[in-house]
Batch of 3 targets.
Target 1
Amino acid sequence: MPTIDIIDHILLDSRTLQARVAALGRAVSADYAGKDLVLVCVLKGGVVFLTDLMRQITVPHEIEFMAISSYGSGTRESTGAVRVLMDLETDIQGRNVLIVEDIVDSGRTVAYLLRTLWARKPASLGICSLLNKPSRRVVDVHLDYVGFDIPDEFVLGYGLDCDEKYRNLPYVGVVRPGC
Ligand code: IMP
Ligand code: MG
């Protein structure tokens, strides 16, 4: 697939992503066998990953969505001022919840989600993030499943956006400097 102007290079191509997502699906299926599982997708970035991941999970599960604000529009730094824009439809008390995220950067968003969701008394609460930027971490968070550790570069595609665009790209690309 040809790249677009603002992409400097492809970091993770579609085949690489699909193979890793399949492996994550197998791991989640094994770990949650016989358990009641709810996947909580963090909108909007997690949606492409969720829809591929859930089709690789072989145990029965439900999906739920949550939207939170972490970045100001057009900025690349999370402010730490996270809030819920759209909440879950279901009560997660006593259930096994797995958060499905696109990327963990500073860790602030996921730390906020953990605090918020633990307060609702789930039986378990895990995190499955497609991407992880360990060098950017500000808040220490334990990630149960990670697709790829990536360097400190701004990426887009496969759900990740640049100013709300390019979420549809089937690969993860590094944005050209100055974009
Ligand atoms: P954190 O709170 O700093 O961990 O930020 C997490 C959120 O920031 C992710 O869910 C993304 O929406 C966004 N984000 C972080 N890094 C990138 C990136 O390289 N490209 C696009 N979005 C990103
Ligand atoms: Mg996100």
Note: Strands lie at 7-12, 37-43, 61-71, 78-86, 96-104, 124-132, 145-149, 155-156, 172-175.
Target 2
Amino acid sequence: MNQTLEWDEDSRAERAADTFRRLFGGPPDGMWAAPGRVNLIGEHTDYNDGFALPMALPHTTLLAARARTDGRLRLHSAQGDGRITDLAVAALDPDAVTGWAAYPAGVVWALAEAGHPVGGADLHFDSTVPTGAGLSSSAALECAVAVAYDDLYGLRLPGPELARIAQRAENAFAGVPCGIMDQMASVCCTAGAALHLDARSPQDHRQVPFDLQGQGLRLLVIDTRVSHDLGDGAYAALRAGCERAAALLGLPALRDLPPGELARALRILPAELAPLVRHVVTENARVAEAVSRLREGDVAALGPILTAGHASLRDDYRVSCPETDLAVTAALGAGALGARMTGGGFGGSVIALVEAGQEDAVGVSVTTAFGAAGHRPPRILCVTPAAGAHRLAPPLGTR
Ligand code: ADP
Ligand code: MG
């Protein structure tokens, strides 16, 4: 199990501040952090105006930042290509920036486009969020910029508005058609809780206590380290299918189909749309069920809900793949209380709820099954629900 990650934000921040000084010739104005996320349940529901239950990871993107008065935006990442990207804020345009810099630059563009008085900055990122693993390193990158700019330029925007700006950056500037969940999780989650999110009214999100430790449980994130290329086009097709189904049913969104009317809807929908609708409606019901169980303090009850969610994504929504299916089967076979793929699908990560003390057995079982199937070894992390995006306290002596 990979537990070599450096959790200590202070020592990571010190290193990032040193690099910032070396790159940009002076100290940063401050340090910010934004986490990656896993979604416990509620997949492919956000763009159907539905519900989700993500939690923030202890893995964060740190940002050392300093405002500039000359309108330049200079970007550097420890996980980038070693170069500084130098842009003019006034000339930011969705077609003008390619590669990783589009995510942070997109946030500055989206803030300016929304009429907020923002200027330039020097930004250095250093992240422990695995990239491309379905854990939202892209949202962490965006949300770090959103919270830093909120402070540096005195915007005082509410969390859901910062999340919306970050989502707009990803959609319109980086060109990735994601829903609002990733950014809401990165900005609005709190430590020890999952975030009950209603994508129709993100401002009404609720914190749901998620006490894994107190219940003798652990949550594993199994990064399958595969990402099948059909992902992007398939995502757009699924979204379009859901919108068409809602239109055929005369509803604003699939979220508006009550579970009691599902059977009738399935009879009248075209065969290719019916399973999509069944997934979305039952998945929203699973979120409600999970929230009820967690509010009762019964974390273990989440297990069967996760496993049912996986079956729905595999059989109805069809966004699973052999590697995620194998990780789920192997985890359950080794005694996990529940497991499912998380994120958009076609690879990425699986989560498994396990009894404390079973982490290694489940990890070994999944790794062995991957080896036997000829897959690369997965990367396995044991995670706890962490804090959303925040500013780091200045080091002692400078306060
Ligand atoms: P996920 O969000 O699931 O990790 P995405 O494909 O949405 O996967 O986003 C991954 C992309 O985000 C990377 O390819 C890279 O362009 C960008 N990215 C994320 N974190 C960083 C970082 N710390 N430094 C540079 N680029 C990053
Ligand atoms: Mg992403």
Note: The two ends are 38 Å apart (CA to CA).
Target 3
Amino acid sequence: MKTQIISVDNLSTKAEGYTQAVSLLKAGETVAFPTETVYGLGADATNEEAVSKIFEAKGRPQDNPLIVHIGEKVEIEAFTMNIPQLAKDCMDAFWPGPLTLVLPLKPNTLAKNVSAGLDSVGVRMPEHPVALELLRRLKLPVAAPSANRSGKPSPTKAAHVFHDLNGKIPFIVDGGATGIGLESTVLDVTSKVPTILRPGGITKEMLEKVIGQVNESKPTDQAEAPRAPGMKYAHYAPNAPVYLIGNSKEAVQNAIEKIHKNLQKVAIIAREQFSNVEADYFFSLGKENQLEDAAHLLYEALRSCDETDADLVLVPVFSKEGVGTAIMNRLEKAANGNWFDK
Ligand code: TXA
Ligand code: MG
């Protein structure tokens, strides 16, 4: 299969980009498109065969449900039911935006493989103008996970999608780099106390201002089966192993010396205050205290490590405050729990 990329930022190809994307989606094909978080790989959520093409292209485990994207809030009525008031309050406060709500699924509405057999469905209304335009032209709910090969960092540029899925999908709508750079916050509102299953750009503090107490599910809490099935798989990992390390220049410099003594090469992914350590490769996460920049740059930095011959990747940790919680959640997964020297 040939994978075509068309820019909708370019006036001369914009109309064609949307028309082709809509007709492919209507015909049961997959299309990658930008959202304000990361690029998604979409298919008609009411078409089981179309949705199965997403799992195939990504190499995604079948038990990992997909998020359904809508262009207008009223669309949720077609496939959800018994929506709690606090979910409605969240929609009013954060939609369109990077918040996925896990709601009770109305039986026999969406394709079965969208929700992986659960009686709930994750839904969000994205804020990106290209995603909204596409959804509003299509007028169908679109199931869309991140448009990467399963296990790899999510794509924040059309080129990342092409790298991972070239030859596996027919079409990429190129709308430039995404904004936030980390996937949406997933909030389960079917439990007694709403629970964050995956942290993201909409933080616990922001949610609690609107709906009161919110719990956080700890992915490390083995006693409880992971509620967001996707969180149990290895994720966001470059080819070389990732190690977390304390947020100290001295610790990083000592680690580099140790690694070099073993005749190995090391890539550092860190904020600019680390830029003058003697690593073989350095990928910046922006200025200290600019957490939004770090979120925006993280996945591209992880991908860039695959273009080097580094034997390992070191990442100084962030404090788990605000968006730092989401950044550390992704880093802990990328590192699969590995700490340097621990
Ligand atoms: O920002 C985003 O959310 C991006 C863009 C494309 O919208 N999408 C995305 O999708 O990150 P994906 O499939 O990579 O992640 C979906 C996450 C997984 O961890 C999945 O297990 C969880 O949401 N999820 C989806 N439906 C669920 C449900 N009914 N119950 C619990 N978790 C659910
Ligand atoms: Mg994903």
Note: The first strand starts at residue 4 and ends at 7.
